[in-house]
């Protein structure tokens, strides 16, 4: 059984190209008609690679492989960064399947599949049921942006009594504020200007501080956890003053340039730098249900799921005008 669907690729020239993909449905795969897709900064990184873009998808299951039993035709599901996990390696068996030794994921595999598309063929074990009543436009950004911050907030010892700082209020940062607040944490927002103060408090922040590279914050109570959700170019020396003893820093936006780390001062305070990658299948399902139960929704701007719509959304992100996650919607 084969299916053909439209995809939107990047190109060497940095332009969006419309293409067709044909895939044969394997026994444990499903064909999903894409209805919504979030836009992530990672898509911008892959714009010149020629791959089908997008990894924050929501859609309707239209066809099933012969061995699929966990979803039905007509089900509304999400799909994200991880395309396939084996389920048998040590990472999968210990609940960290986003690090599966045999995984397929966005950017590295299945270059003809992405959520900027009319559809995808996906491993049935890696789709996420979307709860009834939770809007697909809200669910799409949870597949990567939400998943990324959720893992930091739930897998590394964050407690409701902790002071949790969010640096950078964008696609990841605004969701981190909303989720950490809903978990009961004291949320401290760090931004480079006063521009987003009112919105940050509306998202659930308890404190808001203007913090710029090289500056010292006066009368600042140290935090237990710091999620770096803004610029990838971070001065780790300036972060030491923000951290409590045994605090953790989560670098969620990174580039390919090495970052100097002040190891002596980090040792003196027992500070940890904790890497993290999206979410496991179990964690992602928990996030979607938590968001639905607590009525937590991303703040979004919508664009049509067309070539022109993709280009407009990416330009808005590039210009720094996205508030706060772009979502492409099938017309």
From TrEMBL:
MF (Gene Ontology): oxidoreductase activity, acting on the CH-OH group of donors, NAD or NADP as acceptor; zinc ion binding
Span of domain Enoyl reductase (ER): 10-328
A Pfam family recorded for this sequence: ADH_N
SMART domains tied to this protein: PKS_ER
Protein keywords: Metal-binding, Oxidoreductase, Zinc
Annotated family: Belongs to the zinc-containing alcohol dehydrogenase family.
Keyword Oxidoreductase found: yes
The protein, known as: Polyketide synthase, enoylreductase
Source organism, top-level taxon: Eukaryota
Cofactor: Zn(2+)
